[in-house]
Amino acid sequence: MDNKKVRVRFAPSPTGGLHLGGVRTVLFNYLFAKQHNGDFILRIEDTDQTRYVPGAEEYITECLRWCGLNPDESPELGGPYAPYRQSERKPLYRQYAEQLVKSGHAYYAFDTPEELESMRERLKSPENPAPQYNHVVRTQMRNSLAMPEADVQALLAAGTPHVIRIKMPVGEELSFTDMVRGNVTFNTSQVDDKVLLKADGMPTYHLAVVVDDYLMKITHAFRGEEWLPSAPVHLLLWKYLGWEADMPQWAHLPLILKPDGNGKLSKRDGDRLGFPVYAMNWTDPRSNEFTRGFRELGFLPEAFINMLAVLGWNDGSEQEIFSLEELIQKFSMDRVHKAGAKFDYEKAKWFNHQYIHHKDNETLAALFQPVLVEKGVTAVPAYVATIAGLVKERCYFVNDIWEHGFFFFQSPAGYDEAAVKPKWNADKDAFFAVWSGQLDNTPFTAAELEASFKALATEKNIKMGELQLPFRIMLTGGKFGPPVFDIAATLGKDETRSRIAKGLAAFGQ
Questions:
Q1: Last residue of some domain: 221, 253, 285?
Q2: Which of 106, 201, 446, 463 could form a disulfide linkage to 485, CB 3.0–4.6 angstroms apart?
Q3: 428 assigned to active site
Q4: What CATH number did the domain enclosing 227 receive?
């Protein structure tokens, strides 16, 4: 690596929810930048106004904030190369497109949408189902390469709508070294003449990404492998604009695949298989279509990030759990896999389980608070934290605390009587009546409660096992929950005694 300060960017289009693959691209950019004491830039590529979705940019910003992958420069933060929204940079792109026309590397194309459609229909064949505007076709179309100069100038003077297209050379071999894939070579004859500047004056991705990466001094550009076919256009633009020496190093990241490995993981796959593929909940304002996210499902951001990091990367060891600091220290592009990575939702849940198990109880209680609000339950934070500590080893999601500990917040509405009544008798009834009376004189800790319970069982000559199950069902309603004396100690004396009384009434009927 040379002495230039490392500068990387995540440059999403604000068109919808942020997919797993997008967050992983952010993560790899962020880790690389922080490892090299560089800058991580968020740039919004909103040049395609037809696909722009209100709220999508704010959603992207919030996703990064939740993940803890905060940019150093962004539309929100500003920075030395502002503005960071391409729509706000619109005036500066035309000069570069015109420069390419003057140097003979691009041309004006006046074809109407109808003419383009007619061309595609005319040239369509089984061998060529989607004809492209390329070095063969351009000679037959209405553009400045195929028309007399006077006609071109007359159309421009009249303000005739037009685009500017790159003039792809014929039969040239282009190569670059990808940080993931090594040497990659293209033949320019296989690439069409991409539009660089649209009729509305907005640049396409191809022109804007090159101009902005140059002006913002981006040193490394990491993006999904689906952009690999565009690489020859971008290589030529760097060359034709005279910026070749400043071209960033590229890395095209592997796709995140469906669980069966058969193609790229999509939102539809997630819907079909029952798991999210977006970082956070997203509702499309155009269709009102709702998509569930990892955050709202109860994933911790640290677990989400850890899971994404090992989707397509490993450090060569058996280690699976990495903090963000460890990832910054250990990450390297040469350990990123070339092949796509299969998404395994059960493994994602395992990561979340690991992080929940090791998370402090107070934080879990705070994260669980929205569930209690939704259930209409009011409880002091310290009480909720105690419950979180008792049930968290069973939880895959923060929201699972309710499933495994609902009985701490509400008295049982009914009992698993079938588990108690066949063996219920007067001796057991008497045991609980006596023990309940002794609770005034028993320190209310799990250990003391268990000791007094055991002592009375011994005195009454009843086996502990025959008493603990009914006691558990009195407290919870069923055969579940943490250790029964931990439950009682957490509920407190009055609530424990109240639940014993209700249980006795139910079992004695």
A1: 253
A2: 446
A3: no
A4: 3.90.800.10
